[in-house]
Amino acid sequence: MTAQAPTPPATQVLASVRNRIGHLTLNRPEGLNALTLEMVRSLQRQLDAWRHDNQVLAVVLRGEGPKGFCAGGDIRSLYDSYKAGSTLHKVFFEEEYALDLCLHRYPKPLMVLMDGFTLGGGMGLAQACDLRVVTERSRLGMPEVGIGYFPDVGGSYFLSRLPGQLGVYLGVTGNQIQAADALYCGLADWYLPSAALAELDAGLDRVQFGSYPLKDLQGLLAKLGQQRLEEAPLAALRPAIDHYFAQANVPAFIEQLRAVNLGDSHAWALATADLLETRSPLAMAVTLELVRRGRELTLEQCFAQELHVDRQWFEHGDIIEGVRALLIDKDKQPRWKPPTPAAVSDAQVARFFEGL
Known about the structure:
By secondary structure, this protein is an alpha/beta fold.
């Protein structure tokens, strides 16, 4: 089997208009449609053009290929930029956050097809949309703590607004969820089997728009999909999650997960404690602070908070070591600093928020 050739930068975002709907396709399937700076800029240019185009009434976002909508940012290029003393890793986040904020405030209805992996930067795009569609192939998550980073792209806003402690749980563990949990949490609006996506496309080409394009798109989705699935795993775990992840800090999460047996969640609790002990302690502590602060902040303030932390993170956080261990040397043995959750001080966390 031959390796897939990289997609040329000029075609990494495909744009077309059909039936007064703008279609944007992330076209980098060999990299699970992970975002490059050029892709961010292409999306921004097209959205700016369609914003003032009366012939475009709505926009649909999707990823090329069945494996993912978007697996996040192209983190390897940002690592290389930092190591080379370049500025890409600074410019990328500024422009990515501006794009995400533009989507949140976009004046026309946005639909996103979160088919396959929708992680990190992909969640930043998707959670800004009005109609968020998942399939049985969907895998949603903010996995940043696993590489020594923190949930950004508005994560401190949308995670902090999930019911109970679900946002803290998803942010601090970095766990991925599937369609039923995405609907239960409020991170998705509609479920369609992937086999129905072609039918959805055909429907988009035929929909007759009235005065309220968003309602017209909702009507189409209502014919093909559903807004709730039975047996969301997180629904059963919710009492346990709300107890464990309301504790004061990450060491207390771990202590309670190991010591307190709630219902029949003990095996899950022990596995979760084990998982937390593999993540970047500093990233988890900062994530917890970001999400808890985010509950009281506006969307714009959440983005400002994340950018403020990000500007310090490549120098003082764990991302360079995380990328080294997982993507460069691939030894999967990151040497986190500090090495354990108990070793992270309140002062170390607070430093990232000074001067905000």
